[in-house]
Q: What sequence folds into this?
């Protein structure tokens, strides 16, 4: 007699939850995704998906579709707010080296592509919106998720992919709030073509207690992020775009043009939060994935990439080992992978938040000395190269020739 296929319940329909649903379904596992929001969509801001993330997307079979709008990145610049650039990382070279590009993408695009791929499985992959998981119970035969309307849903496994404040995480590890990093991010999108932003170019510029990042997320569309130190829980009153233009007055062009071209009503503000690595992500039939397990600040652009990797490893383990062992094996591998990334992202955030002129001078000297030679090499080794495990002859390059002109 053949064993009945597993049914996996997933709390959260963000990038991590959807990627997990897709990876599991591709392994013949039934999935039911419960998303608290009434619409299945992720905000309009951008994401940098490094080559380890695109290799995962390729493995999930959705990279070609993402590449229909997402520009391939060719060069990543780091420098000071004055435009004094101290490191240019030719990330376009990853295509030849690893077979997949680093890309920039609108979150909504990635989200749409993943959700459509899950929905294509119709009968064996349900995505239910407006359904928040509020608790769970487990026993030797299965796990029951409790939804906010009182419904109780039964499955074999429960994955908490419900973000940094996730309910499954709270049920497993308690209600300890995330850590506020001391800085706040404002994000937006401008329709702008500018000679200083050739296709596939990323800039991260550091000022005193402030930063500005920008890159193209579609032809003629620039995603940007302004970061500043401040107190948590604040709100903007008045003209937020004028406030940001004032903050970045005198910064390297074309920052002011980018802000001027941004519709103010589309600017998103958010306190930047993370957690120190946890020693435990699950018990019995329940585990965590993505930001619920390992929130990584944007400083290394790896949060979503790691959620994609989680999804593949979880599916590999569940397809080959009995469920509870599979979850512990998944957690062991992924904790080892993500803990260091959580820490390094947090430390880079501390450096980025420096305000004292002397410390900033030291930061600039240090960055100039180590950024291109050391930091890029370590980042490539520790962040990108991991995903080569998923590059096989049976997993050939996508058809796209990554033809975008480099900077
Ligand atoms: C400013 C900023 C910039 C970033 N830039 C990058 C980048 O360039 N590259 C990169 O790789 N990463 C980046 N990240 C990190 C990335 O956004 C996250 O790591 C990624 O979104 C995590 O996905 P997730 O699905 O785990 O969690 P989330 O995106 O938080 O999704 C969780 C989902 O669960 C739902 N949910 C919550 N509670 C419940 C519940 N009780 N029941 C059901 N559903 C629930 C939510 O509505 C949401 O849809 C950035 C993050 C920030 C803040």
A:
């Amino acid at each position: 007699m053949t064993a009945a296929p597993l049914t996996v319940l997933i709390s959260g329909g963000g990038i991590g939850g959807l990627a997990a649903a897709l990876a599991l379904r591709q392994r013949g596992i039934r999935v039911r995704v419960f998303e608290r929001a009434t619409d299945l969509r992720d905000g309009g801001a951008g994401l940098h998906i490094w080559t380890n993330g695109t290799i995962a997307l390729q493995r999930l079979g959705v990279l070609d579709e993402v590449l229909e709008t997402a520009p391939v990145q060719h060069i990543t610049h780091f420098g000071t707010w004055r435009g004094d650039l101290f490191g240019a990382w030719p990330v376009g070279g990853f295509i030849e080296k690893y077979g997949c590009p680093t890309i920039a993408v609108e979150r909504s695009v990635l989200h749409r592509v993943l959700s459509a791929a899950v929905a294509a499985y119709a009968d064996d992959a349900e995505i239910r919106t407006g359904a928040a998981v509020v608790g769970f119970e487990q026993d030797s035969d299965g796990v029951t998720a409790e939804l906010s309307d009182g419904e109780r849903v039964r499955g074999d496994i429960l994955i908490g992919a419900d973000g940094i404040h996730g309910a499954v995480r709270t049920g497993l590890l308690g209600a300890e709030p995330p850590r506020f990093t001391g800085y706040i991010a404002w994000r937006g999108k401008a329709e702008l073509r500018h000679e200083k932003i050739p296709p596939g170019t990323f800039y991260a510029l550091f000022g005193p207690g402030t930063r500005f990042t920008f890159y193209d997320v579609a032809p003629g569309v620039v995603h940007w992020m302004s970061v500043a130190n401040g107190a948590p829980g604040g709100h903007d009153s008045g003209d937020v775009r004028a406030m940001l233009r004032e903050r970045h007055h005198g910064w390297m062009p074309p920052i002011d043009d980018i802000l001027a071209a941004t519709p103010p009503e589309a600017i998103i503000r958010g306190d930047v939060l993370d957690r120190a690595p946890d020693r435990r992500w699950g018990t019995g039939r329940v585990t965590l994935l993505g930001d619920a397990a390992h929130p990584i600040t944007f400083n290394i652009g790896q949060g979503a990439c790691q959620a994609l990797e989680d999804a593949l490893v979880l599916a590999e383990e569940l397809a080959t080992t009995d469920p509870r062992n599979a979850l512990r094996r998944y957690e062991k591998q992924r904790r080892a992978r993500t803990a260091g990334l959580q820490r390094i992202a947090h430390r880079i955030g501390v450096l980025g938040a420096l305000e004292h002129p002397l410390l900033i001078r030291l930061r600039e000297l240090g960055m100039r000395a180590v950024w291109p030679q050391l930091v890029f090499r370590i980042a490539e080794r520790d962040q990108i190269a991991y995903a080569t495990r998923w590059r096989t002859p049976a997993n050939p390059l996508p058809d796209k020739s990554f033809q975008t002109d480099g900077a």
Remarks:
- The first helix runs from residue 15 to 26.
- Residues 11-17, 34-37, 47-49, 132-133, 161-163, 166-167, 185, 187, 225, 270, 290-291, 298, 301-305, 307 surround flavin-adenine dinucleotide (CB under 6 Å).
